[in-house]
Every structure is written in C-alpha cells, then in structure tokens.
Specification:
The chain is built from four helices and three strands; from the N terminus they run αββααβα. With 143 residues, it is of the alpha+beta class. It has one domain. The protein has a three-stranded antiparallel β-sheet with strand order 1-2-3.
C-alpha cells in the first residue's frame, strides 16, 4: 500500500462528508428531522461542542486543537512504513478531522445528522474518525 493512500482516503472522506452535509441541510434543514426507520432518523443539529455536544462555546479552541492534531498526523505520515495499515487509519482520521474543521470554519459548529436513537447524533466525519482510531488501536495492539 502506497503512503499516498492516506491522502486519498482523507480526500474521499472530506468529499463524502461535505456532500452529505450539504444535501442534509438543503433537503431537511437545521433542527428538522426525517424518519428513515424507527431506529434511524436524520436529525439535523449544529454541534457547537465536541463529542456528545460537550464543551459548547469553545469553537476557536477546537479549531486550534484540530489543527494541531492534524499537524501531528502530517508529521507522523513520513514515519509510517510503506504498506502499513496505519495509512488507512490516519487517512480516515485526517479526512474526518478536516471535514469537521470545514464545518467549524464555515458554520461555527459541526453539522451532525445521523441519529440511531440510542446514541448521540453524529456525522460521516465522526464515523471516519472513530473507525480510524479503532483500526489504529487494533494495529498497534497487535504489534
């Protein structure tokens, strides 16, 4: 696996994330919801905090922290051996971080919309970050 795959995964995540948020905002609108199944709703919210809506009102701090974390990924990129599956993990994390950063810069909050009713509302960027972190933990645990 080529190291450039990291950026390919990141770009794909950002594109899918931003397109999904654009469509959700334009078709459903903020603070509205669409019931897909009993267990899945599309509920559009503007999350001014971080995970689970914690620490609302600190948008500039979150932007700064996100930039630092993304910078660490880019610095660490050079140290990832070619063919290492951490490339995919960090690509997902980078793409998810950029997707949510774009929201914070444009909207002042992150657009969340996936609502499984038993879990806090999230978006595709959040899912990519979570999957990337889980894959990285599994990879590092095995080594």
């Amino acid at each position: 696996m080529r190291k450039e795959t990291l950026f390919l995964f990141a770009i794909i995540v950002v594109i899918l994330d931003q397109i999904s948020k654009y469509l959700i905002l334009s078709k459903i609108g903020i603070n509205n919801k669409l019931v897909i199944f009993n267990w899945l709703h599309l509920t559009v919210t503007m999350n001014e905090g971080i995970v689970f809506g914690m620490f609302k009102g600190a948008n500039l701090i979150f932007i700064f922290i996100t930039l630092i974390l993304l910078g660490f990924i880019l610095l660490f990129y050079e140290k990832i051996p070619k063919g290492n599956s951490l490339i995919i993990s960090f690509g997902l994390i980078l793409g998810g971080g950029l997707g949510n950063l774009i929201d914070r810069l444009i909207h002042g909050a992150v657009i969340d919309f996936i609502n499984f009713q038993i879990w806090p509302i999230f978006n595709l960027a959040d899912a990519a970050i979570t999957i990337g972190v889980i894959l990285a933990i599994i990879k590092l645990w095995k080594e």
